[in-house]
Design brief:
345 residues, alpha+beta, Phosphorylase Kinase, domain 1, Transferase(Phosphotransferase), domain 1, 12 helices, 17% strand, disordered N terminus, nucleotide-binding, kinase, ATP-binding, transferase, Prot_kinase_dom
C-alpha cells in the first residue's frame, strides 16, 4: 500500500486507536479543535516520540489553502518552527503529522500571566522574529501570525511557530485577499483586501508580530476596547485598525497578589513598537531594522543574527531529500485524493 495510508483508519486498526501507514501512530487526547477540524496527540511507534496530527475532514474542506499550507510548511526546517513530518489519508480525514510542542501556546501563557515582564517579552519576541525571518528568507509569508499559533516547549521557554494555513510561497500568487485574524489585521490588508489589491505579505507579518509583542507586554490587543461588550465591538475595532493610530502606553499593569503593580515600559521598547505598528507599510520597520534595534539586541544570544544566514541559498529539493520528506508530486496526489468525500464504512 502507498504512503497515502488509506488502510490506516480501516477496520480494527482505527478502532484500536492506530492510524497512518502500517498503524504507525497511536492516537491520544485532543489538543485543539477549530473550523478546520481537530488536532490530536499521537505516539509515533517508529520514532518513539509524540507528534501532533491535524485531522481535516475529506471533501470540500480540503481546499487550495490546505494544499498550500502543506507545501509551504514542508521544507521549513528551523528550531523555532514546528516541523512537518508527513501527510496521509484515512477513510474520513486528511491527516497532517507535525512535531508536538508540550508547553501549550502563547495565548494560554499570557492568559495565565496577564502580561509579561519586558525582559521575558523580549526573549519570546527575539525567537519569533528569528522564526519569521527564516520563513521570509525561504520566500514564505505566514499571514496569520498570532499568539494561538505560537507554541512553547515543555519548559515554556523555546518558542515554535505553527499553522501555515494562510501562507503564500514563492510559487504562489501575490497576497491580495483579506485573510487573518481580526485583532491582528494590518491596515493595508483591510484596505487592499476588500478590493483584491496586492499588499506586501512580509510587512504584514511584521505588523502581526508587533501585535503579538504588544499583547505580551500589556495583556490586551492594541486596537481592542476591553470594556466594549457591544455587538459592534469587532466592527469598531476594525475601524480603529483602518485608521492606523495606535497608542503605546508608558506602563504595564502587572498582577501583584490581589492588586496590580504599574511598571514602566522603557522608551526603547515603545519606540520599537511604534515603528512596527506603523500604519503605512512603506514606513514600517523592516526585519533588518528590527533586528538591529537596540531593544531587540539587548540580551540577544551570541550568533543569533547569523542564525538564518545562507538559508535562502538552500534548494528545496535538497531539504526534502535530507529529511526524507514526501515529494511535491506525492503530496499533491494525496491532497487530490482527500478531496473526494470520506467513507465511514
Amino acid at each position: 500500500m502507498d504512503r497515502s495510508g488509506n488502510y490506516g483508519a480501516r477496520g480494527g486498526s482505527r478502532r484500536n486507536g492506530e492510524i497512518g501507514p502500517g498503524g504507525r501512530y497511536q492516537l491520544g487526547k485532543n489538543l485543539n479543535e477549530g473550523h478546520f477540524g481537530k488536532v490530536k496527540l499521537a505516539y509515533d511507534k517508529v520514532k518513539d516520540k509524540y507528534v501532533a496530527i491535524k485531522f481535516i475532514p475529506r471533501g470540500p474542506q480540503v481546499t487550495e489553502y490546505v494544499e498550500r499550507e502543506i507545501l509551504n510548511h514542508r521544507t521549513l526546517c528551523q528550531t523555532h518552527i514546528i516541523a512537518f513530518k508527513e501527510v496521509f489519508v484515512t477513510d474520513l480525514h486528511l491527516c497532517i503529522v507535525m512535531e508536538y510542542a508540550a508547553g501549550g501556546d502563547m495565548h494560554q501563557f499570557i492568559g495565565k500571566h496577564k502580561c509579561l515582564p519586558e525582559q521575558c517579552a523580549r526573549w519570546f519576541f527575539q525567537q519569533l522574529m528569528i522564526a519569521i525571518q527564516y520563513c521570509h528568507l525561504r520566500d514564505v509569508v505566514n499571514r496569520d501570525i498570532k499568539l494561538e499559533n505560537i507554541l512553547l516547549d515543555r519548559e515554556e521557554r523555546l518558542l515554535k511557530v505553527c499553522d501555515f494555513g494562510f501562507s503564500k510561497g514563492g510559487d504562489d500568487s501575490e497576497p491580495k485577499t483579506c485573510v487573518g485574524t481580526p485583532s491582528y489585521l494590518a491596515p493595508e490588508v483591510l484596505r487592499n483586501g476588500v478590493h483584491k489589491k496586492r499588499y506586501d505579505g512580509k510587512r504584514v507579518d511584521i505588523w502581526t508580530c508587533g501585535v503579538c509583542l504588544f499583547v505580551m507586554l500589556y495583556g490586551y490587543y492594541p486596537f481592542d476596547d476591553p470594556y466594549d461588550d457591544s455587538p459592534e465591538k469587532t466592527k469598531k475595532m476594525l475601524a480603529r485598525i483602518a485608521g492606523g493610530k495606535v497608542e503605546i502606553p508608558h506602563q504595564q499593569f502587572r498582577p501583584n497578589g490581589v492588586s496590580r503593580e504599574a511598571v514602566t515600559i522603557t522608551e526603547e521598547c515603545r519606540n520599537l513598537l511604534a515603528g512596527i505598528l506603523e500604519a503605512n507599510p512603506a514606513k514600517r520597520m523592516s526585519m533588518d531594522q528590527i533586528m538591529h534595534h537596540p531593544w531587540f539586541q539587548r540580551d540577544l544570544p551570541v550568533g543569533a543574527l547569523k542564525y538564518n544566514e545562507g538559508v535562502d541559498q538552500i534548494d528545496e529539493s535538497t531539504i526534502a531529500r535530507l529529511k526524507g520528506l514526501q515529494s511535491v508530486k506525492e503530496i499533491k496526489a494525496i491532497v487530490q485524493y482527500a478531496r473526494t468525500p470520506g467513507n465511514a464504512s
